[in-house]
Amino acid sequence: MSLNIFWFLPTHGDGHYLGTAEGARAVDHGYLQQVAQAADRLGFGGVLIPTGRSCEDSWLVAASLIPVTQRLKFLVALRPGIISPTVAARQAATLDRLSGGRALFNLVTGGDPEELAGDGLFLTHEERYQASVEFTRIWRRVLEGETVDYDGEHISVKGAKLLYPPIQQPRPPLYFGGSSEAAQDLAAEQVEMVLTWGEPPAAVAQKIEQVRAKAAKLGRTVRFGIRLHVIVRETNDEAWKAADKLISHLDDHTIARAQASLARFDSVGQQRMAALHGGNRDNLEVSPNLWAGVGLVRGGAGTALVGDGPTVAARVNEYAALGIDTFIFSGYPHLEESYRVAELLFPHLDIERPELPKSAGYVSPFGEMVANDILPKAASQS
Prior knowledge:
Elements: E1 4-8, E2 14-15, E3 24-25, H1 29-42, E4 46-48, H2 58-65, E5 73-78, H3 85-98, E6 103-107, H4 113-118, H5 125-143, E7 148-151, E8 156-160, E9 174-177, H6 181-190, E10 193-197, H7 201-217, E11 223-233, H8 236-246, H9 252-262, H10 268-277, E12 285-287, E13 290-291, E14 304-308, H11 309-321, E15 324-330, H12 334-345
Parallel strand pairs: 1-4, 1-15, 4-5, 5-6, 6-9, 9-10, 10-11, 11-14, 11-15
Antiparallel strand pairs: 2-3, 7-8, 12-13, 13-14
Helix pairs in contact: 1-12, 3-5, 5-6, 6-7
């Protein structure tokens, strides 16, 4: 099975070390363009663009990078409860057309109640997933060309429709990551790609089995992906030294502050990440070559595969054997590490290489729209 390998755009910041301004670099459009173009040239299939108040807006970043890349796909965030599903469908179709069919979408329910309140969303964890299900049902159907009437508990629309379709048919794929029971139910019903953060293989296998079983009951199959950092070097010893160097500026106070901030999250996935290290820098290798040091101060993906090319490839293939076909990697700093991963890891993996995009043009058969709608063609006169 050929693997899809994605990279990460660090729109929240980048640098040589975690938890310090030393060795940090400014993240501006020029730098993001460098990272995206490197990923494009090196053969990464796409880039994940993060979302949240600490990040540049993922949709605007993706749109700005379309003209400077050729093959790279952009995985951007859909935020239920913050935007209308109909408006989000129009934006999704536009991004797909303008990029030549390179748009992918990542459903993000959010896990930080404080941040969500700042965006005007005050739903509980369970309510957010209920709203996400309603959002996704509408979003999918509108993108697939239906005119939708929907009266839900959280979202209602009447006559929702899309006039200009996306290039990818029936619509661009939907990605989603979540570990709770509610998240797994949503994934089984609604999405094509289920993502997990980098837990030990046994824990990942259990999650895959659970989601597969839920999807099978609905007559569906889903694919699986994993989000991991990578620290790959020419030797295992060099890789582990690089891992230690990455957190060399962290002190106990910085770790404690970061963990206290992350503790307010109601995300089950975040809780599982924190449990791997317990806020303690001792015994960070939580599974062979799986290192939890990143999660000491970083939310979300908190583990890295560490080793030389053949060793990391062996760990990647262990996850692939569980049914994972998509790997979303990152490393600090992201520009240099994209080259290291491509040069030291790619030769040891069977990787699917992206093709050139399709034409992005779309011409309405009715010419210019009249009255904000498609009108029937006039009957031909004999």
